[in-house]
Amino acid sequence: MPAKQKFYLTTPIYYTNGLPHIGHTYTTVVADVIRRYKRMRGYEVVMTTGTDEHGVNVERAAKKTGVPESEFVAKMADAWRALWLELGIPADEFVRTTDLQHVRTVQWLFKLCRENGYVYKGHYTGQYCIYDNAFVNDAKPGDNCPDCGRPTETLTEENYFFKLSAFQKPLLDFYKKNPEFIQPESRRNEIVTFVEGGLKDLSITRTTIRWGIPVPGEEPHVFYVWFDALTAYLSAVGGPDYEKRAMWPADLHLVGKDIIRFHTVYWPAFLMAAMLPIPKQVWAHGWFLMDASKMSKSKGNVVLPRPIANMLGMDALRYFLLREVVFGQDGNFSYDALVTRYNSDLANGLGNLASRTAAMIEKNFAGKIPKAGKLEPQDETLARETQTAIGDVLDYFEKLNFARALESLWTVIATADKYLTTEKPWALGDSEADTQRKATVLATTAELLRIVTVLAHPVLPDSTTKIWTLLGQPGSVSAAELDGLRWGQLTTGVPLGKPQTLFPRVEKSEAIERIESMANEERNPTAPPAPAPAVASSATAGAATAAAPAASEKIGIEDFAKVEMRVGQIKTAERIVGADKLLKLTVDIGTEIRQICAGIAQFYEPDSLIGRKVAVVTNLAPRKLRGVESNGMIIAASVGPEGRPVLAGFLEDVEVGARLK
Ligand code: MSP
Q: Using one digit for the tens of pLDDT, what is the confidence trace for 320-353?
């Protein structure tokens, strides 16, 4: 078999002085979509992300929390890594700029640049923006930073300089020879104009900062953050030994428009100076804005990804980010638009098509996809249109035009809906001819759905995996080959998989309220964050089940008396959208009806609980779980290694509200 072609792509190496918001999530999601897409096209792909851990901002943030920098950044890097994992977008390589391998790579790159005559020592005085870690070209004392608008500081220090001025012509030649290097086109023109205007040498070390990679033998010089951070792309795939790993040069650096200059001017110049291969492409996307301004912690308008993923599922967030805004342009983020798209495109669109198709096959063909019979012109038209869409969608993906790719796919879904409405398979009878026609219509729809599922997989990995299972198709959807995808490959006659919950419809204002409430909880945690509760409210689940204090730790009766427990009776029970483990209950405790969330959804059907008498802890402080208020806790035993909850109950009839002592 021929060796696979490699594809190496990166996200920016994110600063560790804050935690990821929707802007960072956007770039990382896009990288993940491209990774999945390229894999389905047969590439061997490596995707790198990581954390940029040096510089004055981190120094300050660490000081604020009173811990040493190394401890501070280790915690932050863990948090970034964990969130990407939780959101299903972990990188293949997670590079930290404090990794030893990275330190070695930066020092090696510097040595190469120096040996080749592109580094000299000098003094620099200038206006420096400490927030952006950059000297501001042409600024005078008192000027504000043009990027962030905050005051600059005058700084003089001994620096090593990089002869960036020597690279004006080589860079312009490089851009000309590689017109695809800077994308989109508008950014390319902006950068070419900037470089044509002349390049000043760049200071690449600092003596005013302590928290950085040391320049060997030149202490107290440490490397300037951009010389340090950009090099992380190379250290992630072998550093000085990059040839062994055979991933360098990067095929694609994905960045926000804020950092395009560093990636398309400094970075190729450093690599040219060191005579190392230059990346093939830098793609700068726009910003997600909140009320028309860039999100930032200081403005307090930062949107967090986790509450959205908890409420609507990560696929919904991915879909929204890619569908709402043309890649490359700025766009507004709004919860309203997010939930609207969720309901219309996912719940009513793809989700509904998948479940109704499966339900009709279940009902009419004993749960096995039938073979199509004689094709009518309208079946052939649908097949032709879907086949054409395959080419269009792949073409859009190739150009990173995700919004158009999804738009084309959703046009196919709409066509299928129309086709079903006209063909009305549900209105056909049981005669031989009707059964044949039903088979053709349902097989045609299932084939269309299979193709949509494969094409949507890079964007909707979880739900398309569920639809693939639902359709009973062999293998996994992620292993489907995009290059060989065409109409007519549906496996028929196999049993459908179990029905799957895809995108349950949500009530808009309720969903937004829950997302916002979860976001508030995440921003201002009132109690230590806990994983999904085993039984009731997270604060209390442990007390009732396995995690009791060590056996030796005895409590007095007065401590026990502080816990008020009563007999309660469950009045209503329902699932909570976006929280697989929780049920929302209303419980009569004699004096009032309480709303309580219980982590028992995977073990108890809501209807089976109505009327049941349970033991309730009634004097716990209320708290919100997944945005839903929980006022009390239901007692349960925790059984077996997985802690299956078994509700405590009474063998004799007891009065609701009776106290447990
Ligand atoms: N550490 C540097 C990058 C070094 S790369 C060698 C840095 N870090 S950052 O944490 O500030 O991340 C910036 C990146 O986050 C942007 O380039 C973009 O990819 C993403 N975004 C941050 N806010 C954003 C929006 N509001 N909208 C879209 N993406 C944005 O810069």
A: 999 999 999 999 999 999 999 999 999 999 999 9
* Contact indicator for 619, 585 with CB cutoff of 8 Å: no
Output the pLDDT for position 207.
86
Output the CA 257–ligand 1 centroid distance in Å: 9
Q: Are 598 and 585 in contact (CB under 8 A)?
A: yes
**Category of 174 on φ-ψ map: left (φ > 0), alpha (ψ -120 to 50) or beta:** alpha
160: β partners: 121
- Note the pLDDT tens digit of each residue in 294-320: 787 777 789 999 999 999 999 999 999
Q: Rounded to whole angstroms, how far apart are CA atoms 101 and 244? A: 15
Token pair in block for residue 434: 């009707």
Cα–ligand 1 centroid distance for 616 (angstroms): 48
Written as six digits, the tokens of 292 are: 């028309």
Q: How far is the CA of 254 from the centre of ligand 1 (A)?
A: 10
Lowest mean pLDDT among 44-58, 535-549, 610-624: 535-549
pLDDT digits over 237-296, tens only?
999 999 999 999 999 999 999 999 999 999 999 999 999 999 999 999 999 998 777 787
Give the position of tokens 């726009």: 286
pTM for the structure as a whole: 0.81
Q: From the CB of 600, is ligand 1 less than 6 Å away?
A: no
- Residues 279-308, buried b or exposed e (16+ Cβ, 10 A)? bebbbbbbbbbbeeeebeeeeeebbbbbbb
DSSP code, position 349: I
Which residue owns the Cα nearest ligand 1 atom 13?
A: 14
Which amino acid residue places its CA nearest to atom 19 of ligand 1?
A: 256
Question: What is the C-alpha to C-alpha distance for residues 589 and 396, in angstroms, rounded to an integer?
Answer: 58
Model confidence at 1, in pLDDT bands (50, 70, 90)?
low
Q: Is the CB of 295 under 6 A from ligand 1?
A: yes
- Which H helix or E strand runs over 6? strand 6-15
Residue 334 · residue 301 · CB < 8 Å = no
Ligand 1 center–CA 599 separation, angstroms: 37
**φ/ψ bin of 472: left (φ > 0), alpha (ψ from -120 to 50), beta (otherwise):** left
